Amino acid sequence: MRADQILHPTDAGLYCPPGDFFIDPVRPVERALITHAHGDHARSGHGSVMATRETLEIMAIRYGEDFTATRQVADGEITVGDTRVSFHPAGHILGSAQIAITPTAGPKIVVSGDYCRRANPVCAPYEPVPCDIFVTEATFGLPVFKHPDPASEMARLLKSMAEFPDRHHLIGAYALGKAQRLIMLAREAGIEGPIAIHGALQRLCDYHIEQGIDLGELIPATAKDVPAQLVIAPPSAFASAWVQRFRDPVIGFASGWMQVRARARQRGVELPLVVSDHVDWPQVTQTIRELAPSEVWITHGTEDGLMRWCELHQIPARPLRLVGYEDEPE
């Protein structure tokens, strides 16, 4: 069986005919396998959903009564139609997974979803999975993207907090994954007191705590004079009246895109923190070298840059031109 008979792109997302399922479909389908719970990969409306336990539970939190799908926890190797599938840690957010597809005949395909090679204190580390075809993102798929050690970015945050002790530091971070990781990085950097969080982060932070991830003392960022210097909020909060309760705050943002200073200036970010939950250029190319697949498929991001790198290294590659996925939520 040819690779494109096992998995190919459609308007709804990646489809596996021998298993009759879609991976991270962008519209409702009968059977969906989900890599992780970010909204651009995990949508509601499917007939049935297979994912890790954490991903299913986070989807239930986020979608509530709209999450009516039949749910199956991915545990071990599972037979789906004429394929066997297994889920492996992706290192992206809590519950994130790569999906390995092994057909009865034909090449083994690993769909990595979004993945990260740096240590992440809120989720299991990325696990290399040998395969014939590796399906990778290319969010930061250009040589310019070489993300610094997150510890050095936390040192910059602490330096700013020490330099401006009377100013709240408002840091924008995506509600699922990035916010909790930022809290843990701040704890590892030595911040022991309370950290204030926007109400939109509360339930997801509570869930991480329920899973044994110690985020330390968190307080709501609702009081007129919030008694915590560090405040974390989703990016949308910075365009609302909520931000006006803080007098002369230091505005920060945590994202891999903060390496692009023009983006930071455009958003009025005084303290850009380059903290990403995706592979950067050295990590994505390292991963391809390490796995040594016979072919690389690229799902989204800067496809042309990675295509050219594969060509120069004589690795067959193809862009899948999938739409509906954000490069990195801001």
Automatic annotation (TrEMBL):
It is an enzyme of class 3 (hydrolase). The keyword Transport does not apply. Its EC number is 3.1.-.-. InterPro entries: MBL, RibonucZ/Hydroxyglut_hydro, Xnuc_lig_assoc. Gene3D superfamilies: Ribonuclease Z/Hydroxyacylglutathione hydrolase-like. GO terms for molecular function: exonuclease activity; ligase activity. Keywords: Exonuclease, Hydrolase, Ligase, Nuclease, Plasmid. It comes from the Bacteria. NCBIfam families: Xnuc_lig_assoc. This is Ligase-associated DNA damage response exonuclease. It comes from Paracoccus albicereus. The lineage of its organism: Bacteria, Pseudomonadati, Pseudomonadota, Alphaproteobacteria, Rhodobacterales.
